[in-house]
Amino acid sequence: MNDHELAGLLAQETGSLLLEVREKAFASGRSGKEVQMLGDRLSHEYLVQKLAEFRPDDAVLSEEGTDDLERLKAQRTWIVDPLDGTRDYAYPDSREWAVHVALVTEGQPVAAAVALPADNHLFGTQQTPFHLPPARQEPIVITSRSQWGEAEEVARAIGGTAQACGSAGFKAMAVVSGAVDVYVHPSGLYEWDTCAPAAVAEAAGFDVSGVDGERLHFNKPRPVVAGLLISRPEYTEVVKETLRW
């Protein structure tokens, strides 16, 4: 398998594992908190094990793992979020969670996949050909539940409406799928939240940057980025102007 195929396979398999874990945990009477902890731990262990098997010479940065700064010396580093949207995962009917798998070299993702297991959808950097979904008459801006203000300003600027939900990967893939038009997260995010979604969205033809307008860089000593903006190209400049303080 090439790196694109491996990213997709691992994201999909981890998602299937998480669905099974959640179903069995709730069936056995586990609490929501226990379901979250199980999902985080087992998905992390599975991804790390599989990467060690398929790419033993590569470094790994995982939300649920200990950050080994030897990754900074590695030529190839996998940045993964085994369960993005842990809070929503604890609700049996929630779709708003994802699995992120991305490979980074020289600060940029070169292969990535995002799985939305509850919807049985997989998005990756090798899905070709990509076509931007048709534009809607009234654009939709999506953001996190705690970030309403900036999203509402952006929505007004482009003549649209704002929505909020959980999971960075879920929101980013809503743009890629055409369900919404712009994703704005105006505050800092960890690299595992953003790396795979940003890579997939950019490969699909969307504009991707930090909310400061700068290109995102990954595998830094402090693994954070200055927010996230994913936009249909026709809205990008207006959105960036609106977000400039």
Provide the succession of SSEs.
HHEEHEEEEHEHEEHEEEH
Indicate the CATH architecture of the largest domain: 2-Layer Sandwich
What does the main sheet amount to?
5 strands, mixed
| Low-pLDDT residue spans | none
Q: Helix and strand layout, with pairings?
A:
Layout: H1 3-27, H2 32-54, E1 59-62, E2 77-84, H3 86-89, E3 98-105, E4 108-116, E5 121-124, E6 140-143, H4 148-157, E7 161-164, H5 168-177, E8 182-185, E9 189-190, H6 191-203, E10 207-209, E11 224-225, E12 228-231, H7 236-243
Helix pairs in contact: 1-2, 4-7, 5-6
Descriptive account of the structure:
There is one protein chain. This protein is of the alpha/beta class. The protein has helices spanning 3-27, 32-54, 86-89, 148-157, 168-177, 191-203, 236-243, and strands at 59-62, 77-84, 98-105, 108-116, 121-124, 140-143, 161-164, 182-185, 189-190, 207-209, 224-225, 228-231. The strands form 3 sheets. A 5-stranded mixed beta sheet has the order 1-2-3-4-5. Strand 4 (108-116) and strand 5 (121-124) form a beta hairpin. Helix 1 packs antiparallel against helix 2 (32-54), helix 4 (148-157) packs across helix 7 and helix 5 (168-177) packs parallel to helix 6. The termini are far apart.
